Amino acid sequence: MLTDSMRTVYERPLTLTPALTHYCPGCTHGVIHRLVAEVLDELNVREQTIGVASVGCSVFAYNYFDCDFCEAAHGRAPAMATGVKRVHPDKIVFTYQGDGDLASIGAAEIIHAATRGENITVIFVNNGVYGMTGGQMAPTTLPGMKTTSSQGGRDVETMGYPIRMSELLATLDGASYIVRRSAHDPGHINQTKKAIKTAFQTQQRQMGFALVEILSSCPVNWNMTPVDALCHIKEKMIPYFPLGDFKVAESVKLLKG
């Protein structure tokens, strides 16, 4: 008989491989991977799922998800996912993208996929910098934030304002489910998982385009400890990128009860 000290409280999802990740210590990409994998297991769609990763920190995502995966050029994951879904409409197709990828070079692709109402799911990880290439300023870098390409801080007069992608995409008629969540503490991680599940259920039931934006930490490029990086999400990122549901179609609301 198992004692409380021996009881299993967590097991790795089948959709998550045992591979060691390339992510930096304190990065919350790994947490988000786990949430996606848990949802695919719970919905029993692993064998029907095709993921699309683009260039950025997500570039090796195919090593971590035990499902079919393909690699897109920088920013082009929504375009590739559109083609995959139209050829295989019975499959569950999702993209996994960072903010430098989705909101910059891939801005046209994500906007047009949403406005067409493509029946795909997008997992959008926003950490406010170009993580993989050296911590340069991204379209989502906060005002005044120092990066390797804005060493005096982001000056909105010359560099423009950060783009709030969820709010922008929510204005498009083709979008069905657009929300923003965060991975900075256990409570918000649980809320993020629920949103990811709703996004995949939206696709399962042919309800159209769904995107979950997730505020994530980047301790190395932010020059912070992992703990301070999580505090930065709460104290600095959330005030500029408020959490919430920005568009939930009436049909999707039925999924949420």
Kindly list the characteristics that best describe this protein.
two-stranded antiparallel sheet; 257 residues; Rossmann fold
Give the topology, please.
Blueprint: H1 29-42, E1 49-53, E2 68-71, H2 77-87, E3 92-98, H3 99-105, H4 107-115, E4 121-126, E5 129-130, E6 136-137, H5 156-159, H6 165-169, E7 175-182, H7 186-204, E8 209-215, H8 219-222, H9 226-240, E9 244-248, H10 250-255
Parallel strand pairs: 1-2, 1-3, 3-4, 4-8, 7-8
Antiparallel strand pairs: 5-6, 7-9
Order of helices and strands: HEEHEHHEEEHHEHEHHEH
Stated plainly, the CATH topology is called Rossmann fold
Share in β-strands? 15-25%
Give the helix level as a range of percent: 25-40%
Taking all residues together, what is the mean pLDDT?
93
Q: Total helix count?
A: 10
Please summarize the sheet with the most strands: 7 strands, mixed
CATH architectural type: 3-Layer(aba) Sandwich
